[in-house]
Design a protein that fits this description.
There is one protein chain. By secondary structure, the protein is an alpha+beta fold. Helices cover about 20% and strands about 35% of the residues. A hairpin with a 2-residue loop joins strand 21 and strand 22 (about 310-315). The longest helix is centred in the N-terminal third of the chain and has 19 residues, at about 1-20. The protein is elongated.
């Protein structure tokens, strides 16, 4: 009897370690969905491909792995789309086998078209297709969602989450008991803002407006614009054209090579460079940074590069024009001289300049430098040297 009990305990001892290390699909299968362009601000609803055409660009990838050295799992994948916390659609794949120690990358394009392939344990290809059944698409779950999609073809403003999971199933596709297979990283969101506009603020006025262009007294104007693009991911291109005497129309100007081109700005403003090869904290200048010239008219425009789910779309601003005041006029225009002084002295002296003007003091056009009278172009040259760091202002006196 004692011998039988000893054998029984030995058998249980041998079985317990095996039972304790038994794995399940939820433990062995690794899932990770990756949105290819998480900065997308425009999401075309057709990219989701509810009708399974497969004729869409890729907008997500899925890494699928089986880390078990022995187990074959039969699973189906489930993709749920949630808008502002409300589920609006759910798609499922057909069941397929995932062999031991395998790793496969799937994407939205091949899954929608049914051409995604996962090789089984025998090395045979299995076609995998993601289907959105009509019963699992509820665009009316969010007020006016369907009407907005039909009107624009785009996903309306909001936060869209893509939730990926998996189920282990039997040969008939029925779910087996056990925990679902969860995504390794469940933070897959796209913040859709649908920006529509880029509006220029300064300098100048639209080329469509009649009359003379706005005149500037500085060769280094500060360009400003506004856009409803998400400021966390915005990018801009700035173009400047010079108008020559032989240009009769606006199109003549725009057909010329760009006088200045700056790409990949991340802020809605730009200071015109003060040297040919400036070191910029923002943006990249393509080609030379040529100086603006007194007496000439200039056009400028801004492009906003808006990320979409599958690429980039470009929003273009209106085109503004301005003129740099001629040298002979600069000396007779006290507001222009004050503008240069404001740039020379900086914001710390703005209140003092304002106070002097309130007391009736205005520039009379005479500029003295080191005891000698200088012209407006000399003052502009001094401003250029200060902005480049070649000259430093140590003290300012008002007397």
């Amino acid at each position: 009897m004692k011998s039988r009990l000893t054998c029984l305990w030995a058998l249980l001892a041998a079985l317990l370690p095996a039972l304790s290390i038994a794995q399940t699909a939820s433990q062995d299968i690794f899932l990770d969905l990756r949105i290819l362009n998480p900065d997308a601000q425009i999401f075309n609803i057709g990219d989701i491909d509810f009708t399974n055409t497969g004729a869409v660009p890729e907008y997500f990838e899925i890494q699928l792995s089986n880390n078990s050295p022995t187990n074959v799992y039969r699973i189906r994948l489930i993709l749920q789309i949630i808008l502002n916390g409300t589920p609006i659609a759910e798609g499922q794949t057909n069941p397929f086998n995932v062999p031991p120690m395998s790793n496969t990358v799937l994407n939205s394009q091949t899954l929608s078209g049914g051409s995604a392939t996962v090789f089984d344990e025998n090395g045979l290809p299995q076609r995998v297709e993601l289907n959105f059944d009509d019963a699992n698409i509820d665009l009316n779950a969010v007020t006016d969602l369907e009407d907005q999609i039909l009107a624009t073809g785009r996903a309306p403003f909001g936060t869209y989450a893509f939730i990926l999971s998996g189920l282990e199933v039997d040969q008939n596709g029925n779910p087996l008991p056990g925990d679902p297979i969860t995504d390794n990283n469940d933070n897959h969101t796209v913040f859709v803002t649908n920006p529509t506009t880029v509006e220029l603020i300064f300098p100048g006025r639209s080329i469509s407006e009649s009359g003379d262009p706005q005149e500037l007294s500085t060769l280094f104007p500060y360009f400003q614009w506004y856009s409803d693009v998400n400021p966390a991911v915005d990018r801009y291109n700035l173009s400047v054209w010079k108008r020559y005497p032989e240009d009769n129309t606006a199109q003549d100007v725009l057909n010329r090579p760009k006088f200045l081109y700056v790409r990949d700005l991340t802020q809605p403003f730009f200071q015109y460079p003060t040297e040919p090869n400036p070191v910029l904290f923002d943006g990249v200048i393509e080609g030379p940074a040529r100086s603006l010239e007194p007496g000439y008219e200039y056009f400028w425009q801004v492009q906003s590069l808006v990320e979409t789910s599958t690429g980039v779309t470009i929003l273009e601003s209106d085109i503004f024009r301005f003129r740099i005041t001629s040298l002979e006029n600069l000396a007779n225009q006290s507001p222009q001289i004050l503008s240069i002084l404001e740039q020379l002295l900086g914001s710390n002296w703005e209140s003092q300049l304002q106070q002097l003007r309130q007391q009736g003091f205005e520039p009379n056009g005479t500029i003295i430098y080191n005891g000698q009278k200088i012209e407006m172009n000399d003052l502009l040259s001094l401003l250029n040297k200060i902005l480049q760091g070649e000259v430093k202002i140590n003290k300012v006196e008002v007397y």
